Amino acid sequence: MHHAFLGPFWGNVAIIAIAGAITIGCFVAMFWMIFRPGEKDPHHAKYEILRKDR
Amino acid sequence: MQATVTAQHSAVSAEDDRALAAVFSAYTVSATCWLLFATAVGLLLAFKFGAPDFWAAKYLTFGRLRPIHTNDTFYGWASIGLVGLAYYVAARSSGTKLYSIKLAWIGLALFNLAAVAGTIALELGYNWGDLEYREWPWPIRLVFLAALLVTGWNLIGTVARRTTEDIYLSNWYTVCGVLWTCVIAIVATLPWYQHGLGQVAISGFYMHNAVGMWFTPLALGVFYYAIPKILSRPIYSYALGVFAFWTNLLFYPLLGGHHFLFSPLPWWLQTTAIVFSVAMLVPVWGGSANYLLTMRGRYRDMTHSYPLMFIFVAVIGYLFGSTQGTVEAFRSMQAIWHLTNFTVGHSHLTMYGFVTFAVWGGIYALLPLATHKSPGRLGIALHFWMALVGSFIYVIALSIGGTIQGLDWLHQRPFIQSVTDMAPYWVWRGAGGLLMFLSHIVFAWNVWRMTSGQTGNAGSPILARTEGAAA
Amino acid sequence: MKKLLQIAGGALLVYIVIVMGIAVIPAIDLSKTPPGPGVKPLTALQAEGSAVYAANGCAYCHTQQVRPLAEDKVFGRPSAPGDFAYQTPELLGSERTGPDLSTIGSSKPSDVWQYIHLFDPRAVVPESVMPNFKFLFHVVTTVPPGETAVPVPAAFAPKQGEVIPTRQAKALVAYLLSLKQTPMPGYAMNGGMGGMTSAAPAAAPAPTAAASGGYSYDAAKGQSLFMANCSACHQATGEGIPGAFPPLKGNAAVDADNPTLHIHTVLQGAHGVTIGGVAYSSVMPPFADQLSDADIANIVNYERSSWGNHAKPATAADVAAVRAKGP
């Protein structure tokens, strides 16, 4: 594979590290919301929408 | 509570309802016409792989018809169909009438004007280069932009006069989807800053953003409204829907460069595209889990609710198609699949298995509520199964064929072998495509029954429930 | 209203910032990429041809981007940023149903081949699924002065009349023939025919004694190399195309016991030669830069032993000797 297209090693590491940290953080948040959906308030928008429209 | 309900009732008259139904119907009928036209062209294109000399005249040559197929499915069928749904969802979920019926009609005229003019221009050989999905000459792109601006204004106006406290999540997706796409249209159209490799960078951006920041949010907006309505059950996690909205916004625009891996585009653009293709799994898996958990335990409802079946297939299409996209973005995978027919299978898995099924599910669930007319059970079943089986054959054939094509290249066989090896898979693709097209004819018949013809016996599950409650 | 403004305005703003960073600013920057050494703007006719290429959607099946992968070597060296300085609209393409065209101007330098192929691709590549572009040609009863008829093989030619290219066809072929790569320092020339010296040693050891052994060569490799590099013009039957590309079957140079002329033609190409009393105007590209001595020996031996030819085999050493003598 051509070297010039892969860019500097540490440059790649930096992008992957930053993006990886964001991704992992978001994955944790995602699973948190899946396991603890909460939202028990009966006036929450998600329940309001089920009442007859208008 | 009682007071607000009364207030809302007084805000919308029966006449407003009829006007909204007329707009929704007109968008659906118009979209359906484009679907029939664009997929008839697609079927002809599939046939040409086996018979390249068939209708090879100037105006019927493959290279002119192909962008007509892609642009008209994008900007004729899916865009118009989704905007019609967005109007209905915006008005109903906001407990109000449409901000402007007139603007909605103007928007419809502009969308159609752009698609007709674009089709004619491509037929005559006027294009802006073979730039995937943005071949229309710029004046036509401006007409499309005008249609978007009108739509955005109208949707915002509708949501602004809502009688509910919150802006329901669906409207986040649809309103912002329209606004983002205005930006995309401007960025893609302005010609004087993109030359040579610079234009390649915009192509990579455009190819993915026109899909992921336009069709995806509008289709997800339909999910967040239709799934709870059909099941009479709230979305599993509203917060997760909000989270998916923001992560989709942050990650999706960054991954366009993965269409040009191994190209001379700067390395950081390519690496960023790859890593954020992985990050995209957050909104995709989070969103899909949210829909599936909402449906959890209620899968038996599907056996007597085709609208739910359509939406279920769309959710699975979203999950698989997007995950496949992430896998394809790795350099090692792309060394095999990039530039092969595998990518055509991928685009159909997403634009058809996800977006198109979502539009259908939305229309079957919601249009009967507006028009009080339903399709027949046989019609909706025929449509569903032919479209599903057809797209299965289509995607599987091109996935296998594309892999063989890529391996032929990898093994450095004479190039022509990758062409001859594809022959049987192109035949299967044509067979799948034929089933898909036939299902669209049945769909057109169903739309006729939901709008103008005689009502059938497959009422929307939402309609059945509200009528049952009333009785 | 405030809530709506926060969501819609916020999301719009975030998006604009991202789009500027990931697309618009890099695009402005990349648009200033200087042309690579030797990369020239298109002539008026070539530019017209590029428009014909785009209008008829050639880029939906043909890429113009060579990736730095082994499998892409047949199409030339990896594409460099400077290659695209004058390419607006960009025609990199996203599918490769047909071969990449980055170096088509050097691998198929014959305009005659290009015309026949456009008129009916199956006349030269039987397995092709490319549509014909007959609408870019006229059929006339008498060829007007200044025009040259395209020697379409009888089986594919119109029943009556001669085929002549329209201006659009001429522009398109001028554009296709302009598609060549220029040598790029630091980019391994891994194939293609850009004219850069190859890794093959220029001064190979002179052949020792006579070729040893009988008629042994890698027949499968020879056939596959022939199909990839030669059959587009000389055809799988070795019969060529009458009036356009000479036959190899029964060809005096191919069927001669001395392989020098045969090897020399493959290495250095040919132009305007007369074979068997027929003058051929077509250009044959040189293969010296992209094929090794062993590969060329395999090709010539496949040709020398096929279609009824029975010439003495050549060896890699013979090829090296002819190569050493230069053009």
Automatic annotation (TrEMBL), chain A:
<feature type="transmembrane region" description="Helical">
    <location>
        <begin position="12"/>
        <end position="35"/>
    </location>
</feature>
<protein>
    <recommendedName>
        <fullName>Cbb3-type cytochrome c oxidase subunit 3</fullName>
    </recommendedName>
</protein>
<keyword id="KW-0472">Membrane</keyword>
<keyword id="KW-1133">Transmembrane helix</keyword>
<keyword id="KW-0812">Transmembrane</keyword>
From TrEMBL, chain B:
<dbReference type="GO" id="GO:0006119">
    <property type="term" value="P:oxidative phosphorylation"/>
</dbReference>
<protein>
    <submittedName>
        <fullName>Cytochrome-c oxidase</fullName>
    </submittedName>
</protein>
<dbReference type="GO" id="GO:0004129">
    <property type="term" value="F:cytochrome-c oxidase activity"/>
</dbReference>
<feature type="transmembrane region" description="Helical">
    <location>
        <begin position="426"/>
        <end position="448"/>
    </location>
</feature>
<feature type="transmembrane region" description="Helical">
    <location>
        <begin position="172"/>
        <end position="193"/>
    </location>
</feature>
<dbReference type="InterPro" id="IPR023616">
    <property type="entry name" value="Cyt_c_oxase-like_su1_dom"/>
</dbReference>
<feature type="transmembrane region" description="Helical">
    <location>
        <begin position="235"/>
        <end position="255"/>
    </location>
</feature>
<dbReference type="Pfam" id="PF00115">
    <property type="entry name" value="COX1"/>
</dbReference>
<feature type="transmembrane region" description="Helical">
    <location>
        <begin position="205"/>
        <end position="226"/>
    </location>
</feature>
<dbReference type="GO" id="GO:0016020">
    <property type="term" value="C:membrane"/>
</dbReference>
<feature type="transmembrane region" description="Helical">
    <location>
        <begin position="267"/>
        <end position="293"/>
    </location>
</feature>
<feature type="transmembrane region" description="Helical">
    <location>
        <begin position="103"/>
        <end position="126"/>
    </location>
</feature>
<feature type="transmembrane region" description="Helical">
    <location>
        <begin position="382"/>
        <end position="406"/>
    </location>
</feature>
<keyword id="KW-0472">Membrane</keyword>
<dbReference type="InterPro" id="IPR000883">
    <property type="entry name" value="Cyt_C_Oxase_1"/>
</dbReference>
From TrEMBL, chain C:
<dbReference type="InterPro" id="IPR003468">
    <property type="entry name" value="Cyt_c_oxidase_monohaem-su/FixO"/>
</dbReference>
<feature type="domain" description="Cytochrome c">
    <location>
        <begin position="217"/>
        <end position="307"/>
    </location>
</feature>
<keyword id="KW-0813">Transport</keyword>
<dbReference type="InterPro" id="IPR009056">
    <property type="entry name" value="Cyt_c-like_dom"/>
</dbReference>
<keyword id="KW-0479">Metal-binding</keyword>
<keyword id="KW-0349">Heme</keyword>
<keyword id="KW-0249">Electron transport</keyword>
<dbReference type="GO" id="GO:0009055">
    <property type="term" value="F:electron transfer activity"/>
</dbReference>
<keyword id="KW-0472">Membrane</keyword>
<protein>
    <submittedName>
        <fullName>Cbb3-type cytochrome c oxidase subunit II</fullName>
    </submittedName>
</protein>
<dbReference type="Pfam" id="PF02433">
    <property type="entry name" value="FixO"/>
</dbReference>
<feature type="domain" description="Cytochrome c">
    <location>
        <begin position="44"/>
        <end position="180"/>
    </location>
</feature>
<keyword id="KW-1133">Transmembrane helix</keyword>
<feature type="transmembrane region" description="Helical">
    <location>
        <begin position="7"/>
        <end position="28"/>
    </location>
</feature>
<keyword id="KW-0408">Iron</keyword>
